[in-house]
């Protein structure tokens, strides 16, 4: 395959790049390093990098025309400044339209879109079924959801995977790197009482392998374990891996107004239609993540949420 990966310098992208180069495929990445970085990328003969924005149609068209990808994984996304609506719109909506149109022009055999579970907004109940209404209420969620709708009206052979929190190498968002960094530095932590669903990187990569098959179904699928864990559980799992026993109970506070109390996605349709089920248990996934941080450290941590209250400082 000749796989074009947008956002390939990010967490999921870098793991995809490594996986498909390891398998001997050709890979081209388009990334502007907004939240990813060149350190996550290899220097190998079958790898090409275009530094630029998917919002720039000329950059996208030139990369597609030169590389002629057979498969596209669209992972680039903007989220790091929740008040920068214009950048979210440019990258997530215009950028997606650019990538979809370019993929149509080269007749790509398969198009994979990575969607956020924030598309569901505040769900009526959990686990969230894939046909639950979309009600995004943040700039990131709104723009990613508009983009998914453009993918869906294209005549590409497309799949959109609505992802749980993927846990694995290069993770630089969410509670796991935050707790790791603060616990290692002897700093205080607090937890929200939110509940999330954590998917191991190896399970994510296995699902992408299926999603790239030319005869795999077209449509929208939840990508998750279907199992919810509290942020307090995450804290205790990280502390246990580091063999740290906190001297006092960690404060638990309600989520911020732009956060969602519980996000647990129902993967049953994905299990049936794609023949895929997440295998790695939560505790094993956290343990793998902590050993990766011990070996590689934690980079700058990004968030799609407004800055948290200063209780942790
Ligand atoms: N990691 C998860 O658990 C998760 C969950 C839900 C959805 N997603 C989706 O998966 C995709 C990858 O997420 P991630 O966690 O790897 O995030 P990430 O921030 O690590 O990666 C995103 C990459 O996109 C790049 N990028 C941003 N704006 C760009 C632009 N205009 N042009 C080109 N590149 C640009 C960034 O520099 C970064 O390398 C995103 O589309 C995200 O919405 C991820």
Question: How would you explain this protein's 3D organization?
Answer:
- The chain has 313 residues and is α/β, with parallel strands linked by helices.
- It is 36% helix and 17% strand.
- The strands form four sheets. The chain has a seven-stranded parallel beta sheet with strand order 3-2-1-4-5-6-11, sandwiched between helices. A two-stranded parallel sheet has the order 7-10.
- The longest helix is centred in the first third of the chain and has 21 residues, at 85-105.
- It is globular, with a radius of gyration of 19 Å.
- The site of nicotinamide-adenine-dinucleotide has 29 residues, from helix 1, strand 2, helix 3, strand 5 and strand 7.
Residue stretches low in confidence (pLDDT < 50, at least 5 long) are 309-313
- Please trace the helix and strand order, writing H or E for each element: EHEEHEHEHEEHEEEHEEHEHH
Give me the Rg, rounded.
19 Å
* Structure summary, number of beta strands: 13
Number of helices: 9
Mean pLDDT, rounded to whole units?
A: 94
Cofactors and ligands: nicotinamide-adenine-dinucleotide
**Strand arrangement across the biggest beta sheet:** 3-2-1-4-5-6-11
What's the end-to-end separation, in Å? 48 Å
Helicity range: 25-40%
Shape: globular
Largest sheet: 7 strands, parallel
Which band does the percent of strand residues land in?
Answer: 15-25%
Helix-and-strand structural type? alpha/beta
Question: Could you name the key traits of this structure?
Answer:
binds nicotinamide-adenine-dinucleotide; 13 strands; seven-stranded parallel sheet; globular; 9 helices; alpha/beta; two-stranded parallel sheet; disordered C terminus; 313 residues
